[in-house]
Design goal:
By secondary structure, this protein is of the alpha+beta class. It has three domains: 33-233 and 248-257 and 466-520, no CATH class; 263-463 and 542-559, no CATH class; 593-671, SOR catalytic domain (Immunoglobulin-like, Sandwich). Helix content is 12%, strand content 23%. The chain contains six helices and 32 strands. It has helices at residues 2-22, 65-75, 80-87, 131-151, 251-261, 294-299; strands at residues 40-48, 59-60, 63-64, 94-98, 106-107, 179-184, 202-205, 210-213, 216-219, 222-227, 231-232, 235-236, 239-240, 246-247, 308-310, 315-319, 330-334, 339-346, 363-364, 379-386, 404-407, 425-429, 432-439, 444-449, 519-520, 593-599, 602-608, 615-621, 627-633, 638-642, 649-655, 668-671. The strands form nine sheets. Strands 1, 4, 5, 6, 7 and 10 form a six-stranded mixed beta sheet that branches. Strands 15-17-18-20-21 form a five-stranded mixed beta sheet. Strands 16-24-23-22 form a four-stranded antiparallel beta sheet, with no helix packed on it.
Length: 672
């Protein structure tokens, strides 16, 4: 009896502590091991277009679509959450929840063909020049649809229909929903889906959704748009691991999710790459993605100081495999040519981790055959990345000007034989050579020569991305002001109808009582139009053919398991917000003007005779005139935006509204 009393008191202390720290805990939640507690939540929303039937209960391989997705994200031996936990060394515990509309998918207001090119088969499509505005309309459509579903009392759930609070979508307590993934119904409609078109798979940023729960506000931010296929003319395109759970290919999903964390594409728009199979962000191995590079893991804050060291002199060094914990898995060295050398030990044979190894126990649901992996050479991988650039991108590079590349003596453009093996030597450049003296399943030893020990102190490790582990301070009240520096590449020509913010009486979040069902406020000033930040990697074949390059060798080249299920809370009655009719504003007037000034990495915009009317559109272009990003802002008197590193020219426009793209005054263009 005494032991039971002590256990009861301990449980009360734990629950009380959680309430003091977070303001509340999910109703009915069972406390989980801290190492398995989610640090990042992905909200999946199934969407169908107005001309389509329900699909999430359709079955493939004797499994419903909703369960196939949950196997893919949460349950299977190769699930997405496990990938991120493994690659991050346990620093990212991802949980995927779902938003249903009365346990069904959500329905958009327009047919699918409206968002595709117009042709004889698709009379509802868009004409030339309308692509960007249709892309924005689609973003607005699903944002409004999600907002309406929440207003009608729907809350996040896991696949077993256990209900969660909206606070669970913001694990790092920054007032932003960690990630929204919109998944459209698979279709057999004969419509065109081209690169960068509205229906393309991509990642971007939007703050159109705002959720009020108690005294806290949660706003949308990073999002993915995906269309998943479950079969084609040849049969099922699903896979099974040893657990026999049907899953989708995870490579593309993990690649796009990495974009939401900040990583960039390491390939070019023509699909060439100087990194290729050495990183998921260059070319993912299908159907299961491989590790990202050690440079990218460092940039995300996934390596501790004892795992990555700086080379400061010639000598012999020891590396442990990429998946090793509490061991040195990487070395780096700043070079005099503006590059930083990164070295890591990758194993792609039977000794490799479950995501790098060629021999995965993965089978086709269509044929039952074991999937044959791509043959890659194990050994020392040598990267060159631009010094001081946290997230390098190769998407706009040309010729030999790669922002990140693998240095190799190999013969194949896929970098499948780029590793330096036992007894092999590689010339890095800048008079630096590396020589592998010993390689085993446990470690790799190498010698490095040519290091000028009098060179300046190497640059510091880039600051890691803030951890998605909840802090120990009470959750603050968040505002709905949009973030000024989203990492995206959006489009122009937005169209959206502003909605008013409904008046509410918030409840406090200092007790464990259930939260009221949130009031939704779709914002009228989305941060950006949904232009993809990257060109999603084209789906490769299961065993790509390795094509030799014509370059002679050696040529030196610079180069969760979810937390225990909570029970449902009681939803109070909600009165949905109504949308006002958009008002027309006068056209250009001499009493309004825009003044712009670029200082360093920021642009400041000052509006003359600023009113609450209209929308400010700030578009950033690189030196070649390519649109990098487009952000929208309310017409405040003073606006400040942090520019992307590649930004060369900025165009600022003051429009009447997102429904009527009439200029209130002349646009202004400034050059960095």
């Amino acid at each position: 009896m005494q032991n039971k009393t002590k256990l009861f008191k301990t449980a009360i202390c734990i629950i009380t502590t959680l309430i003091l720290i977070f303001g509340t805990i999910p109703c009915g939640a069972v406390l989980s091991d801290e190492s398995n507690a989610p640090t990042f939540t992905n909200l999946v929303v199934f969407m169908k277009f107005s001309d389509e039937d329900e699909f999430i209960n359709n079955t493939y391989a004797d499994t419903t679509v909703r369960n196939i997705l949950d196997n893919t994200y949460n349950k299977s031996v190769y699930n997405v959450a496990d990938y991120f936990k493994t690659v991050s060394g346990g620093k990212m515990n991802m949980q995927t929840l779902y938003l249903f509309d009365n346990n069904n998918s959500l329905t958009l207001s327009k047919p699918r063909g409206y968002y595709a090119e117009k042709d004889d088969q698709n009379p509802y499509g868009y004409e030339s020049g309308e692509e960007n505005s249709r892309m924005y309309e689609l973003q607005t459509d699903w944002a409004n649809t999600i907002s309406n579903a929440i207003t009608n009392g729907n809350k996040p759930k896991d696949i077993e229909e256990n209900q969660y609070n909206f606070a669970d979508l913001d694990r790092n307590r920054d007032g932003k929903i960690d990630l929204i993934t919109v998944i459209y119904k698979n279709t057999t409609q004969n419509i065109s889906v081209g690169w960068n078109s509205p229906l393309w798979d991509y990642h971007s940023y939007s703050n159109m959704i705002s959720v009020q729960e108690g005294v806290n506000t949660y706003q949308s931010g990073e999002y993915l748009q995906l269309t998943c296929n479950y079969e084609n003319v040849n049969g099922l395109v699903l896979y099974r691991g040893e657990d026999n759970l049907p899953i989708l290919p995870t490579g593309k999903i993990c690649h796009e999710t990495m974009h939401a964390l900040g990583l960039k594409d390491l390939y070019r728009s023509n699909q060439t790459s100087a990194v290729y199979y050495m990183s998921l962000m260059a070319k993912h191995l299908t159907p299961i993605g491989q590790y990202i590079s050690v440079k990218e893991r460092e940039s995300l804050g996934w390596l501790d100081n004892n795992q990555i060291k700086t080379i400061d002199k010639n000598g012999t060094y020891t590396l442990y495999p990429a998946s090793a914990q509490n061991e040195v898995v990487a070395y780096k060295r700043d070079l005099s040519n503006g590059k930083t050398l990164y070295l890591e030990y990758r194993q792609f044979d039977d000794n490799g981790n479950k995501y790098d190894t060629k021999n995965k126990k993965l089978y086709s649901c269509n044929t039952g055959d074991l999937i044959k992996g791509v043959t890659l050479k194990s050994g020392l991988i040598c990267y060159l990345a631009n010094t001081g650039v946290r997230f390098p991108s190769n998407i706009n590079t040309t010729g030999a000007n790669w922002n990140m590349q693998v240095v190799s003596n190999g013969q194949y453009s896929t970098m499948s034989d780029c590793a330096v093996g036992d007894g092999e030597e590689l010339y890095i450049g800048n008079d630096i050579f590396v020589y592998v003296t010993n390689m085993s399943a446990d470690k790799l030893e190498f010698e490095i020569s040519g290091i000028a020990e009098t060179t300046p102190t190497p640059t510091l490790t880039p600051s890691p991305i803030p951890s998605h582990t909840p802090t120990a301070t009470p959750r603050p009240t968040h505002t709905t002001s949009p973030t000024a520096t989203p990492t995206i590449t959006p489009t122009t020509s937005p169209t959206a109808t502003p909605h008013p913010t409904p008046t509410i009486t918030p409840t406090t979040s200092s007790t464990a009582t259930p939260h009221p069902t949130p009031t939704i406020t779709p914002t009228a000033t989305p941060t950006a139009t949904p232009k993809p930040t990257s060109n999603p990697t084209a789906t490769p074949t299961e065993s790509p053919t390795l094509i030799p390059t014509s370059t002679p060798k050696p040529t030196p080249r610079p180069t969760a398991q979810p937390i225990s299920s909570p029970t449902a809370t009681t939803n109070p009655t909600i009165t949905p917000a109504t949308s006002p009719t958009a008002t027309m504003c006068p056209t250009a007037s001499p009493t309004h003007d825009i003044n712009c000034n670029i200082e360093g990495n920021n642009i400041s915009v000052k509006l003359t005779n600023s009113t609450s009317v209209g929308i400010i559109l700030i578009s950033e272009f690189n030196s070649d005139g390519r649109l990098l990003r487009c952000t929208t802002h309310s017409p405040q008197e003073n606006i400040s935006v942090s520019l992307l590193s590649e930004t060369h020219t900025v165009k600022v426009m003051w429009w009447n509204s997102l429904n009527n793209l009439v200029p209130i005054t002349d646009s202004k263009t400034v050059t960095r």
